[in-house]
Amino acid sequence: MSKLKLSVALLAALATLSACGKNHSARQTQTAQTSQPAAAKPNVAVPQAQLPRDAIPSHYAITLTIDPRQDRFTGHTEIDVNFASARKTLFIDGLDLHVTKARVSLPNGKTIAAAYSQVDPTGVSYLNFADTVPAGKAKLVFDYDAPYDQSLAGLYQVVDHGDRYAFTQFENSDARRAFPGFDEPGFKTPFDVTVIAPADDKVIANTPVVNDTGAGNSMLRWTFQQTKPLPTYLVALAVGPLDIVDAGDIPANQFRDHPVHLRGVTAKGQGARLQYALSLTPSVVAALENYYGVAYPYQKLDILAVPDFAAGAMENAGAVTFREQLLLMGPDAPLDQKRSSLSVQAHELAHQWFGDLVTPTWWDNIWLNESFATWMEYKISSLVKPDEEFGRETLNGSESVMRLDELPNARQIHNPVRNQDDIDNAFDDITYSKGAAVLAMFEAYVGQEEWQKGIHAYLTKFAFGNATADDFINTIATTTNHPEIVEAFHNFIDQPGIPLLTTALECGQSDVSATVAESPYANVGITPVARQWKVPMCLTADGNRTCQLVTPPSRQIPLGAKCPATLFPNAEGT
Length: 574
Hints:
There is one protein chain. By secondary structure, this protein is of the alpha+beta class. Helix content is 24%, strand content 33%. The protein contains 11 helices and 28 strands. It has helices at residues 8-12, 275-292, 324-327, 335-351, 366-384, 393-405, 420-425, 429-446, 448-461, 469-480, 485-493, and strands spanning 32-33, 55-65, 72-83, 87-93, 98-105, 110-118, 124-133, 136-147, 154-160, 163-169, 191-198, 202-204, 209-216, 219-224, 238-240, 243-250, 260-266, 300-306, 313-314, 319-323, 358-360, 465-467, 499-507, 512-520, 535-541, 544-550, 554-560, 567-568. β9 and β10 (163-169) form a beta hairpin. α6 packs across α8 (429-446). The longest helix has 19 residues, at 366-384. The chain starts with 7 loop residues before the first helix and ends in a 6-residue tail after the last strand. The relative contact order is 0.09. Mean pLDDT is 92; it is low at 5-31.
């Protein structure tokens, strides 16, 4: 997600911002069905963060009837799960859903009825089964209806120039507003999605359309290809009288033996204004594939300009959504708008690998997603438009965020996530800008080529799965043969604040060195908190570069035999 991810109230006050298978049948054949149980309240504490691992999802089949002209939508969701043990109850996620029928279908054909009730305002819900569900495979089945959300979250309505649309925004935890399920990044499964919508509307999803057939009552049934494994927050839909601009294929290359079809999507009548944004997208994808050494991982790529969108931009797999001003512009658009279009596209498309292909196990590591995409957006933007001075943006961001990081109440990059509020708090400049600066610092220390090899190793090792920040750090350390960076990385992500380094040049008759002393930085009048860091530091002496890990309280760095005329103790400002 772009760094434009702010509260809806704040976003409303800002005029412009620049960067942030096989379908299952609707009913299972039933050889036996238990009676409907009474709704029950849980006799254990309601989980406020991760759900208990009592059942693990392996596949979703979702059918939604979406008419943006109506007040509510209807849904039928089937979730293949594996129960860890025999159970009479189960916690799942579902927010403001009116579930009319819930049940469990077993492999032997038996159906067990379930009572569904929401038991927490955050959308944690509870299933009470009429009979014990045995351990092993089963299918959770739900019929429900729900209102379109009115806060630009979940599945929500937009009215634009009198036309009505429905769009989704599921990050952080708002997929539960559209369908019941296991709404956490650690659960990745394939999705089969079907949408029934008015015949004069168009429907966009994560994957290409398999077919669209009549569904009666002037409605069409849109069936989409099964997705690659995704967490719920990356599922996306758009319904309405959309303009769809065919931008052709991004050609096959050394990483891909097939083309990727590219389209732009806007509200009605706006498609012609996508020309500049779409001209950038193939170059961004090519630059990312070249850097990662990994093919674009999804079946197609749509970029969508959403007319009412709180998040700024969102990296939904294969269907990336943006605020209109980031994609829609005329031939005389200002340079700042064009630069924003490029940088935010680079950010969100970087996520297609880093966040989508490999997804955090839990929200406490979402910092790595956003830090990495922020660092990567400027690297890729510099390759696509080398004359537009993107190379200094990570440094600018790092200097800016120091104003936050020097405060006594500054938070660390890597924070525990114990509830829904903790997730929202993770999307700030400490995550985006400080995190990006930390990554740039370690890249400079291990070397750009070695760092790139480490990222490739990480993406290939954990492709279509989940990983933690420790998985990333350890993979980089192993691949680059720099085990010392593991502890140093944690010094920077697990505590707030800034180290202050003071460098003194010492020229002897036969050897020259720089002594680097470390102390915690604090603003004038504030007593610094006693913290220590191992700092990956690079110096240039007469243009010759030397990198060392500075350990507290000081470190002597040898610079050879000749006293340099110039010493720069912060090479490239990283």
